[in-house]
Amino acid sequence: MTALLQVKAVETYYGNIRALAGVDVEVQKGEIVCLIGANGAGKSTLMMTICGSPQARTGQILFEGRDITRMPTHEIARLRIAQSPEGRRIFPRMTVYENLQMGASLDNLKYFNEDVEKMFALFPRLKERQSQRGGTLSGGEQQMLSIARALMARPKLLLLDEPSLGLAPLIVKGIFEAIRKLNETEGLTVFLVEQNAFAALKLSHRAYVMVNGQVTMSGGGRELLANPEVRAAYLEGGRH
């Protein structure tokens, strides 16, 4: 069976600096796959490369068997790959409701009201704040909005870049629970980049470890959670 997303020997550069050095990653339909690694390992660069900005200099990225390596970002989005980027990047002057409108797929506007209600059920805080400007929300609420806006596109693949960054543990738990629920009830496929290795590995079916732009290890989420090397490097000496 062809994987939903295949990243093959991808190298990405910023000028003369190589940020990704021959990365191979696969995500099967219906999986939650996470990529963990230290800050600056190249995790966010991989996410952005999948979305076409920057483009891979060498290697290949396939989505549903189709080569998207040289495709512009807006065309990649039309294939129903949605991203909740690092740093949230919501529209601060727009209300919660308007942000959700911006995320909605033009092809699926007939489902708009249904999808908005689904987001409010998933993140009840957003329903309470629907007429509030995005910039006035707390960090956790902005993260919920960023994910909900991406989900409004009815994605076949959801890319999540550091969803727990800077958030209180209770908020993180709620966000990860929402991702799990969507995966279990709707079969949503998720590729997750995360520094909170413990939460990400617990959530994921499979995982990759990235060091200096290279994938150095892969395996089942629970398998890597139990791996002494991973625990020492990313789980504070295994104290979790």
Topology:
Blueprint: E1 5-14, E2 17-27, E3 32-36, H1 43-50, E4 58-63, E5 66-67, H2 73-78, E6 81-84, H3 96-103, H4 112-122, H5 124-128, H6 139-151, E7 157-161, H7 169-186, E8 189-193, H8 197-203, E9 206-211, E10 214-220, H9 221-225, H10 228-234
Parallel strand pairs: 3-8, 3-9, 6-7, 7-8
Antiparallel strand pairs: 1-2, 1-4, 4-5, 9-10
Highlighted features:
ATP binding, 240 residues, 10 helices, 4-stranded antiparallel beta sheet, alpha/beta, amino-acid transport, nucleotide-binding, ABC transporter ATP-binding protein, Rossmann fold, 6-stranded mixed beta sheet, branched-chain amino acid transmembrane transporter activity
Helix content estimate: 25-40%
CATH architecture classification of the domain at 1-79 and 189-240: 3-Layer(aba) Sandwich
In the CATH scheme, the class of the domain at 1-79 and 189-240 would be Alpha Beta
Largest sheet entry: 6 strands, mixed
Please identify which CATH superfamily of the domain at 1-79 and 189-240 we are dealing with.
P-loop containing nucleotide triphosphate hydrolases
Number of strands: 10
Q: Tell me the Rg in angstroms.
A: 17 Å
- Describe the strand arrangement of the main beta sheet, using strand numbers: 6-7-8-3-9-10
Q: H/E series, N to C?
A: EEEHEEHEHHHHEHEHEEHH
Low-confidence stretches: none
The proportion of residues in beta strands is 25-35%
What fold name goes in the CATH topology slot of the domain at 1-79 and 189-240? Rossmann fold
The best one-word shape is globular
Query: Total number of helical segments?
Result: 10
What structural class should be given to the helix and strand makeup?
A: alpha/beta
User: pLDDT average, as an integer?
Assistant: 92
Terminal CA distance: 36 Å
